[in-house]
Write a structure and sequence with these properties.
By secondary structure, the protein is mainly beta. 6% of the residues lie in helices and 45% in strands. The longest helix has 13 residues. The protein starts with a helix and ends with a strand.
């Protein structure tokens, strides 16, 4: 306790039977750390299931500075790199990669800022994201036919209120197995994902009550692959959902996803279209 507070307390005790005082409020820290962990009925990435419709355990950590700069790491179990690839259902040996492929780790960093003086808040978010699949080794039993899985993206987002537009562009030669191989002469650099997202504050709009903390989610995006010499891998994806945030940091939600063109774009594993219409439920805790 600071000496000035001790002195004030002593003088107050001499002057009156009781004295109440408040300590100075601690300043907000420049650096904050947040953790999150979640259980999902499946892992959906850009409209495509990454776990063959099976559950996923996910978690991450975010380090944010008051200046707006941030760093983070996030991970999830996956199966798509080891699931038999093709349609009709292929032999078990015909997988994307002959080792690894059970884990995805994302490492990212960037800068975000909200211009509070502009209406509901105009915001920007600029950064770099590395998708890393530990242990993946190129090639399969029938030959070295696939590019690397590890992918690097740069992204930029512009938001206003509950609406956000974002574009992510691949800067690496490979993009999730697409790129230059023996049969494809062009790399995947320049592949992009353009998305429009709406986070609708339903709870605020209706005045709280039972719907306090409820948010609606709407999303549409286009995944456009740059190489497209052998396969037409590009497609469009959609998402609609609801989530509820509780004061203790727990979030629960569910969403529906679908794609247009994923099956025709050869996104088929175990004889199944991994971009078909599906629902996902989850519970997540942030602390």
């Amino acid at each position: 306790m600071r000496k000035s507070l001790i002195t004030t307390a002593v003088l107050g005790a001499l002057a009156a039977p009781a004295f109440v005082f408040a300590a100075d409020a601690a300043p907000a820290p420049d650096l904050t750390v947040a953790y999150n962990v979640g259980f999902y009925s499946q892992y959906i990435f850009r409209g495509l299931t990454q776990t063959d419709r099976k559950p996923a355990l996910q978690g991450g950590v975010d380090l944010t500075h008051s200046s707006g700069f941030y760093l983070g790491a996030w991970g999830s179990n996956i199966s798509w790199l080891r699931d038999p690839y093709g349609n009709p259902k292929p032999a078990e040996s015909e997988t994307f990669y002959k080792s690894g492929g059970n884990l995805e780790i994302d490492l990212y960093g960037g800068y975000r800022h909200t211009f509070d003086s502009v209406g509901s808040g105009l915001g920007i978010d600029l950064g770099v994201l590395q998708y890393w699949y530990p242990g993946t080794e190129r090639g399969k039993a029938t030959g070295n036919g696939y590019a690397g899985a590890n992918t690097t993206e740069v992204y930029g987002a512009l938001s206003y209120g509950w609406l956000q537009g974002k574009v992510s562009v691949v800067g690496s030669d490979d993009a999730w197995g697409w790129g230059k191989t023996a049969s494809v002469t062009k790399n995947a650099r320049g592949t992009y994902y353009a998305e429009l997202n709406a986070t609708l504050p339903i709870g605020e709009w209706v005045g709280g009550g039972a719907l306090s903390g409820v948010t609606g989610i709407a999303h549409i995006a286009r995944q456009e692959f740059n190489h497209n010499e052998v396969f037409l891998a590009s497609y469009t994806d959609y998402k609609l959902g609801l989530q509820k945030a509780f004061e203790n940091g727990v979030n629960v939600g569910a969403y529906w996803t679908d794609t247009n063109g994923a099956k025709d774009a050869s996104w088929t594993y175990n004889g199944k279209n991994i971009g078909e219409s599906t629902g996902t439920a989850y519970i997540q805790k942030t602390f």
